[in-house]
Each structure stands twice: as C-alpha cells, then as structure tokens.
Amino acid sequence: MDERQLYEREESIGLGERALRRLRADAAAGDTSPGGLLLYRGRAGIGKTSLINRLRNAANSDPDGQLLLYARAGEQQSGAAFHVARQLLQPALAKMSDTERRELFIGWYDIAAPALGLVPPDPTRQADPLGVQEALSLVVTQLSVNRGPVVLVVDDLHWADQESLAWLTGYLGQISPLPLLAALSYRAESLPESVEAGLRHEVRELGGRGQVIELAKLSPAAVDAMVRSRLGEDADDMFCRTCWSITDGNPLAVSSLIERLVEQKIEAIDENSEQLRSLVALSSGQEIGRRLERFGTDVQRTAFAAAVLDTPFDLELISRVAGLPLNQAETAVDKLIGDQIFTRNGREFTFTHPTIATAVYQSIKFPAMRTSIHSKAADEVLASGKGGMAAASRHLIQLHPEDNQLVVEQLRQAAHEHLAMGAPEAARRCLERALQEPPGEDDIADIRFELAGAALLIDPDCTVNQLRLALAEVPGLDPVRRETATMRLGQALTHTNRVQEAVEVTGAEIERMAEGPGRTRLQAGSFMWRMLLRNEVGGRETSRQLELLAAQHRLGRDPESRAVQVLRAWDLTMRGENSVEALALADRGLEAGLPAEGLGWTNKTWGFEIPVMLGVTYIYNDRLDRARDLFADAAREFELMGWSGGHLGFAVYLQALVLFRMGKLVDAEKYLRPTLRKSDRLGKGSPLQWDLVAVLCDTLLAQGRTKDAVRLAEDYDFRPGLYPPAAVLPDAPALHGRLLLAQGRKKEAATALEQAGEELDARGWQNTVWSPWLSHLALAVADTDPGRARSLAAEAYKRATRAGTNSGEGMALRYCARVAEPGKELGLLRDAVDALGQSPAAYQYAMALVDYGAALRRDGRLREAVGVLEQGLDIARDCGATGLADRARRELQAAGVNPHRLRPLPSRDLTNHQLLAAQLTAEGRDLNAVAESLSVTPLRVSELLAAVYRTLGTNPQGLAETLRNDPGLQGGEPAGPE
C-alpha cells in the first residue's frame, strides 16, 4: 500500500493521531489516568501495517515527546519465547547502564533479565512464568512513570510468541492509570477467540480512551484514485473498476498490482483489462515461488534464507545462511528489492510485507533444503553468541530427525534455558522434539522426566503420562530422580483430582524400596494425597495408619519425621480431635524452622503442602499468630524466587484466611480481590480459585453483604458438583448451604448442609470451626423442627468440646443459644462470650457480644445490655462487619441509647492497660490477682485480655510465648481512665 497516501483511512489515522496528542497533553498536565488502547483489526493486506507505521512516524517526529516501544511479530518467530517482549524493551534498556537497569527493575532484574536477553539464562533455575510476566509489566510501568509517556506498538500481534502474548494481553488491564498508549494490529481470524475477547474487554474498560478500528476493503473510488495517481489521470474507468473487482479492494493487492503495471509499462486502458488477472496472480503469495524460480538459484536461496530467519538481516548474515559468496548474495538482494520482495532500512533488509515472507517460506518445497537452511541458521545464532541455545532451538526443532545425539543435547540445553526464562511451553517443544531424534536408550527416561517438569504448569496430563513412562523405562532413572518422579507424579495426579491413582503409584513404589528417608518421604506423600481428598473412602482407616506411622517417627528430628508429625497434627485438627495434642505435634514439626530443615515453601521434593498443613493446623487451633508468620514467610520466599503465579496467590489467600479468622474483614477483602483477578489467568475452576471465592464469600457474608456474596458465587459457578474434590480449604459445599441460609432459603439450605455433613462425617472430619455445618443446619430447621435444631446444636457443641479450642466452643455455644428453649439463652450466651473472649476470633466474639447484649435487653437488664452492646459495636466496626454493627446500633436504640454517639474506633495496638494485663496473666496470675494489681474489676480484666487475644492472634495457652517472641510489643496510650 502506498505509504505516501493512505486512501479512505483518514478517520483511522485521525484516531491514532488524536490519541497520541491526548497522551502527550495529559502527561504534561499530570493527568492520573491517561492510558489508551487502539486495536487495528482486519484481514491480511488490509492496511494495518501502514496505519501502525503512520502512528510510529508520528511518535518519532517528536522523540522528546514520548518513549516509543515497537515490535513486529513474525510467523516463523512465533515459537521464539519472548521475541516480541525483547523487541519492545531491548532498545530502551540498551541505552541504560547496568545500574540504571537494575534500579528500573526494583529487585526483579534477575527474574526478568534472562527473558529479555540481558543475561544468559541459568539452566539450574526454573522461573515462574507469571513471575516473569509481572516483572516485564513492572518494567513497562516504570518506563511509563519515570521516562514516559510511552507509546507501545505491536504489529501483527496474531503472530506473537505465546509468552509475549500472554504477558502483553494480561498487562493491558493495568495501563489505565499510566501515561501509556498501546496500539496493536492483528488478524482477528488468526488470534485465539479468548485473547480477542480479552482485548475488547480492555477497550470497553478504558471507555473513550479505547478504540477498535475495523479496517474495511477500499471502495471503487479509492482504487480509482490509487490507479490514477500512478498511471495517470486519463486511466479508463472500466480499467480502474476491473482493478478493484479482481483485488476485492484489498490495499496490498491493489498496490502490488499497480507496481506490476508500472514495471511492465502497461497502459491503463480498457483493452489491457484482460492482462490484469494474470498480473494479480503474479503478485499473489501463490505465485511467489514461480517468480523466485525465474530469478535463478542464488535469488531463490537468498529469499529462502531470509524467510527462515524472519528477522531484519545484513548482507553478511544472509550470505552465510544462504551459503553464497558475499557478492552473489548482494546481487540477489538487489534483485529481490527490485521485485518488491525485499526492502532496505539502512544497512538492514527485510520483507516488504509479512504475507510475502510467509509465502516465500511455504514455497520451500523440498524438506531437505528447508532443514539445511534451518541448520545453518542455528549455527549462525550460536556463533553470534546472542540468545544462546534457546534462540537456536526454533531452528533445531525444524531439523529432520536423524539420530543425532548432539542435537538431542542441544535441545535439552535449550529446554533448560527456556525454563530459566519462564517459558515452559517452549521447553516442552524442545524436549518433545528431542524424543523424536531419538535419544540414546540411557537418556530416554531422563528426557521424559525433564519433559514432565516442563509441562507441570501448563499440561498436568502430559506430566502424568511422561512420568509414568519415565518410571517404566529400562534402563530407568537413578534412585534420587526416581523418588522425585514418584512424588511429582503423586502431586500431578492429586492436582488433577486423581488422588486414588496417586496413592496407588506411591504405594507401589514404597513396596519396592528399603527402609530409609526416601521410603518415609513417599509414605508421607501417600498420606498427604489421601488426606487432601475431601470424599476419600476409608478416611478413618487412613487416619489410623497415619497415627501408627507418626508413632514410629515420634522421636525423629529429620525432615521426613517432622513431615509425618505435621501430617498427623493436620489430621487431628480436621477430625476435631484434641487441640493440645495437635498443637504439640505441629510444634514438633516446626522445630528449628521449616526452611532450615528441608521442608520450606520452595522445596521441590515436597511442594508446599506440608507447610500449608502446618499453618492450617495453627489457624483452626487458635494460634493465628503462628499461622500469620508462616504465611508471611511463604509470600516472601515466593517473591524472592519470582514465583508470583499460583504459589504467591496461594500464600496471599492463606494470609487472607488468617485475617478473616482474626476478624479483619476489610483487610481480608483487600488481599482477596486482586488475587482472585489474577487467578483468572491460571484458568477458571482451579483449586486456588475455589479457595479464594469461598473465603471472599464468607468475608462478604460477615460484612453483611449477602447480595455481593451471592453474586460472586454465581459469577464463578460456585455450586455443588463443580467443586474440585481435592479442594478442602475452606469447606466449599457447606458454604453453599450458608449462602442459601443467608438468603432465607432455609429448606434448600438444610438439604445442602445435610449433604455436606454426610460427606464430612463419612470422612471423619468433624472440626466445627473449619466447617460449622451442624450449627448452620440447626438454624435452617429451627422454625420447622425446633427439637431437632437443639439436638444438632448440642452435637456441634459436643464436638467442639472434644477439640477444646475457645473459638470452637464459643461459636457452638452461640448457636446453641439461638435455638435454645426459653430461659436458657442468657446462660449459653454468657458462656459463649467468655469462651470467645479468650480466642483471637474477633468477629465471632463481636457476634456473641451483640447476641448477648440483645438477650439482656429483652430480659430487661438494660444497663448491662448497653455495656455489652457498645463493646460489641466497637469490635464489629473495627472488624468492618457493617451488618453486625447496624444490628448493634438498633439494639442500643431499643435500649434507649443514641446509637450515633459513638466512641472512636479502638487502636489495633495494645494499650498500656492491655499490655500490662497480658504480662501479668503470662506470669501465671489469675483473674482476681490481675484485677487487684490493676485496680479494676475482674470483668474489666476479661475485656482487656479479650482485646489482647484478638489483636495478637493467640489464645491463653500461647500468650506467654507470643509476648516472649515479640520484643517489639509496646503499649500505647490507655483507652481511657480505668
């Protein structure tokens, strides 16, 4: 298409230029939300590249006005990991010193630098793909903020490599507050539907700053103008109309046809219309091969070499790849320029249009010739020292398999480099191709093992298949790899909800192993898979067997023994057994710190399930302070490793779960919302997403936002039959019943809760804090069957007392009170307040206080009621439990108190009085002695200690240790005169 004048594209040109001017003006004015997005959409040859180039030229016309980041994807480069990202960012980064680059990356340099080709990838490390994507996003954000505004342009996005495409499309949702204009061109039919849907969504989100520019074919009038501008104003009307009809108004086809007419000096008269069809065919991709043949072998080889490279090239490079002397290559290039196949840009050359490059590559008819050129291209990439084996791998993959062990080793090395860059799909392609070579018998098992590792994050089924094959190979894996392969196979099977197979695989391997650490690790892994399954048949027998294994290793201090103790602690917790025993086992597992003993969050043998189970044990045994510290360590470790995908998402989710249990509902939601959005990129319906949705639903219900919780559940299809059976945190099926109950749909709620309860009882899981289904079922049936409701609530309390946690007993007592016979409510609620006041569960404590205060008011004890309700109101407001706070206000108003006369929210730090009460209690003084020392009533001491437990996240048994381990604890100003 004629770059000097773009016919019928004035409106599209204007949109781009106006967006560019607005970007500059907004950035100069300090506008906080100037981000923009332009999508140039249309079929091949329709003019997308011309419009993109017009925008580039406009940006380059004022280089001080903005930073231009440009990339052009190519079909042959679509398999080169991060090729587009490198094109975009390398030119800007190359102008900086190493110190400036490291400052720009803010600690993420080591994570992103290999992907951008700034440092060689370390084959011993494996980068998290989402971590690399976030690092790239950080770089663009930093450039926009510190060196912007930025114009980011990508031509032919449909040919972008998978890694760059995933990063870029994910990043577009972050550009709204940035001085950044993104312009992308693509063929809609060649872009995955989900990707285009995402792009259109981002356009809608940006409102007037987003535009989809649909490029239509040219009208007959436009083609007339194009013909007459080159062939003369006296061109015949019928000739011009024929030019339009046989090209279907495609701008590239029209331009190519006109060039042929000029070249062959054909007059634009009606008599010559018959020649047009043959000239169009000569200009088409299908005829490229024939044109090259007519030019001779040198030109043909030069064009083929350029198509294989699919990047800008100089004469020396093309001569080496084509296998021609430099002077012959130069002559061939000149001919290709004259035939409008190549174009020159300074000392470099490239194809005039991507469709021509594709047509040339497809015209390489003989596989041997294509393989030969790819082989030379791979040699040149390696000789240049740029990109390493990973860059050469796209050529190596195209070689014809011929039992070449050097190629096998090169592909394995390339795979390791790709994994270090955060490109597992590229690594997978290399290893699959290595298996086709084929490798020697001694290497097959190891390559399958490596392929399984590459596919772990992108295709669990492939991981399972390759690990099975690797374990079955003879000769097989060495003992260390064999054990690791078995563990990974168990993990992959569990994560794809095939837990029984995981148990069988590990069981078979255990039988063939001698006693020792490896066998114990696999035994622990086998129990771990079975325990992660919600509806495992024979769960009680699993627990009995684990108890025996834990007894055998009760004195061990090695990682394997400690892992077994953690598993047993988690099992006791989920079964609702003695809390003291569960915590003792958990503490034994925690001795010396998990990371120091090979059980850390980033341990590749165990995965992170063991520390997760340890943290969950603390959560549901009222030691939220320990769980909080564990999960904060997890987030730090994952960030240091660059694991910001599912790993970091899970760590954030667990931190939010702790916040929810502590009653910090607003903070929990702040953690959950962005992590849930990120989880969408991992795929709908993942276990992590279910966990996030479940806790966020619970958080919204606690805030009194029932409609929001129901809408969230509907948006994510959160309903029975769709829960991953291995997702046990939290109890999703029972949550479905709670959602129904919150909507007043009690009959449906009862059915859902009964079904959930039957599954849990069959499994032996009876922890009433993790799943208070019995208590909620009591509420659901209370109106129609009060006797059964009281029986259900009593059973829940019985189970809670068996575990013995203050939060569990207090919660169960509160529900007992809600369905109690007349006259028994007050006593039950007083006991619930006492129990929850000694727990870190602030929201549960606030609910008990409001219930108790309301009951006191109804009993006519207004003075007591007001004090209790005001305390409940304060805590509810501090938690962010809006619905509960409103209820407390209504109760206060009914008691004759103005609910608008509120005290300031309490501090989240300990007051001097709270700290002193805690210190005296930790010394072993009883309630009366502490009261006497502080010159307050025992009731006031109870209130002070309740604030201590919910602020620190501990219980009476852990108070002394918490104070001892946190020397930074200080008292603030007293809340008021005592």
Number of helices: 48
Characterize the overall form.
Answer: elongated
Mean pLDDT: 87
- Report the sheet with the most strands, covering strand number, pairing sense and barrel closure: 5 strands, parallel
User: Which percent bin holds the helix content?
Assistant: 55-70%
Determine the structural class based on helices, strands and strand pairing: mainly alpha
| Radius of gyration of CA atoms, rounded to a whole number | 34 Å
Poorly predicted runs are 592-596, 973-978
Commentary on this structure:
It is a single chain. Helices cover 64% and strands 4% of the residues. It is mainly α and 978 residues long. Strand 3 (150-155), helix 7 and strand 4 (180-186) form a beta-alpha-beta unit. Helix 18 (367-384) packs antiparallel against helix 19 and helix 36 (732-742) runs parallel beside helix 38 (773-781).
Short description:
Helix content is about 65%, strand content about 5%.
Provide key terms for this protein.
978 residues, mainly alpha, two-stranded antiparallel sheet, 7 strands, disordered C terminus
Helices and strands in order, then pairings?
Elements: H1 10-29, E1 36-41, H2 48-60, E2 67-72, H3 83-94, H4 98-105, H5 109-112, H6 129-147, E3 150-155, H7 162-171, E4 180-186, H8 193-205, E5 210-214, H9 220-231, H10 237-247, H11 251-263, H12 276-283, H13 288-295, H14 297-309, H15 315-322, H16 326-338, E6 342-345, E7 348-351, H17 354-362, H18 367-384, H19 388-396, H20 405-421, H21 424-436, H22 441-455, H23 460-472, H24 479-495, H25 499-511, H26 517-531, H27 539-552, H28 559-574, H29 579-590, H30 609-619, H31 624-641, H32 646-662, H33 665-679, H34 687-702, H35 706-715, H36 732-742, H37 746-763, H38 773-781, H39 786-803, H40 806-818, H41 825-836, H42 842-858, H43 862-879, H44 882-894, H45 912-922, H46 927-934, H47 938-952, H48 959-965
Parallel strand pairs: 1-4, 1-5, 2-3, 3-4
Antiparallel strand pairs: 6-7
Helix pairs in contact: 1-2, 6-7, 9-10, 9-11, 11-12, 13-14, 14-15, 14-16, 14-17, 14-18, 15-16, 15-18, 18-19, 19-20, 20-21, 21-22, 22-23, 23-24, 24-25, 24-26, 25-26, 26-28, 27-28, 28-29, 28-30, 30-31, 31-32, 32-33, 32-34, 33-34, 34-35, 34-36, 36-37, 36-38, 37-38, 38-39, 38-40, 39-40, 40-41, 40-42, ...
